[in-house]
Amino acid sequence: MILRHSFKTAVAGLRTHKSRSALTVLGIVIGITAIILVMSLGEGAQNLILGQIQGIGATTIAIVPGRQPKGPTDIISTFTDSLTKRDIDALERKGNAPYVDAIMPIVFGSQSVAYERETYRPTIFGVTNLFAEIYDVYPVEGRLFTDEEIKTYADVALLGNKVKKELFGDEDALGKKVRIKGKNFRVVGVFGPEGQLTFMNVDELVATPYTTAQQYIFGIKYFNRIVVRADKEENVAATVRDITLTLRNSHNITDPSKDDFFIETQADAMEMVGTVTGVLTWFLASIAAISLLVGGIGIMNIMLVSVTERTREIGLRKAIGATGKDIMTQFLLEAVLITAVGGMIGILLGAFLSFLVSLVLTQFFALDWRFTFPFQAAFLGIGVAAFVGLIFGLYPARQASLKSPIEALQYE
Questions:
Q1: Tens digits of per-residue pLDDT, 220-266?
Q2: Which of 85, 110, 188, 246 minimizes the number of CB atoms within 10 Å of its CB?
Q3: Are residues 246 and 338 in the same domain?
Q4: Domain boundary residue among 232, 265, 298?
Q5: What is the pTM of this model?
């Protein structure tokens, strides 16, 4: 029996029980669809985050207080008071860090903001105007802070788009006063709908001068972050080295293992994000692939039932000259055909759902989400599906090939 005839016979066998074949294919379709969907969304999320990080600029350097976390239990170590005004003064000296172009201390936390009877709890960011330059976020109404307002601890604030809507609705917010921790702040600017940018949602923040936030809102003498901008991209590595040496000297640290701060560049952030999202995506895809195992068991079960039902057919084929190898090839082809069809449908369905999700995220959530078709996931899905069909179809096919033609013809 030539391979082409075996293929035709396998197709005819599957067509004989269309409903059963369709239900068997469904298990494979679900597994492949899940893999494609997870991989596509994972790549889309990774591209979105990396794009936002790239938008910050390659010359941006973040100094974070505490020791660099090595795992989830170390996150608390970043909430320390190791960065102070003394560090800002040291970094501003050109002899310590000659390639530093600008420095911005940051303090942040959550506080309730009220206007008349309306109350909302956004994130309060104490920053300088460098915030707008780095993140390319400028008010669509009003203005940024002046240097004088920062120096004099002025009670001024810029509102995120959602904060403004929650407190003022359609009413004009400029010039009005909001209350934060018992103190009135005059609204001098309102941001447009910007959405999520790296670690913050611009729509849900209130920005004030960092001096004001330190003194009146949080009552602290330290900074939660210090952002430094190097003058040129090629000087970033040298700037990181200068910052490290300056802060160690400022903190009287002689042993690098005792550093109470760590430095992040955009390249570091991109590498970390790429690693984390990549591992997470493959982990979720592996979980989704378990459904293929379930589908494989279903294939084996259906094929065993098929072998039993077609015992007389097997006996007749053997009686007219078909060998055990021919019978085995036929049933193996049936199993592989089921998984191949399921794999193709799953890839198409997964790609369609991924595109649909990316469209929704783009149109309704204003995210710069690009649809990505994961070719490696498609190849993986087809390969795994074919492997599952081969492995789980092997036992039923062998059982069919071992049947005696005389006993099979006598089977009722």
A1: 999 999 999 888 878 888 998 999 999 999 999 989 888 889 888 77
A2: 110
A3: no
A4: 265
A5: 0.58
Same domain, 48 and 112: no
Query: How far is 198 from 345, CA to CA, in rounded Å?
Result: 36
Range of the domain at 326: 3-53+272-409
- SS3 state of residue 57: coil
Residues 36, 65 share a domain: no
Whether residue 205 contacts residue 155, with contact meaning beta carbons closer than 8 Å, is answered with no
Same domain, yes or no, for 254 and 383? Answer: no
HEC-encoded secondary structure of 369-388: CCCCCCHHHHHHHHHHHHHH
Closest CA to 48 of 330, 389, 358: 358
Which residues lie closer than 8 Å to 349 by C-beta, 6 or more apart? 29, 32, 33, 36
Q: Which DSSP string do the residues of 159-223 spell out, in sequence order?
A: E-HHHHHHHHTTS--TT-EEEETTEEEEEEEEE----EETTEEGGGEEEEEHHHIIIIII--SB-
Residue 375 token pair: 């070719």
Distance CA 367, CA 195 (A): 8
Please say whether the beta carbons of 120 and 172 come within 8 A.
no
- Over residues 327-363, the pLDDT tens digits come to 777 777 777 777 778 888 888 898 898 889 888 887 7
Is residue 221 within 8 Å of 86, Cβ to Cβ? Answer: no
Same domain, 293 and 342: yes
Q: Mind listing the pLDDT tens digit for each residue in 285-314?
A: 677 667 666 766 777 777 666 666 666 666
- Residue that is last in its domain, among 244, 265, 286: 265
Q: Are residues 37 and 134 in the same domain?
A: no
Q: How many domains does the chain have?
A: 2
Structure tokens at 347: 């890839």
Residues 248 and 184 in one domain: yes
* C-alpha closest to that of 192 among 261, 253, 275, 132: 132
* 33/157 same-domain check: no
Question: Under a CB-based contact definition with an 8 Å cutoff, are residues 221 and 214 in contact?
Answer: yes
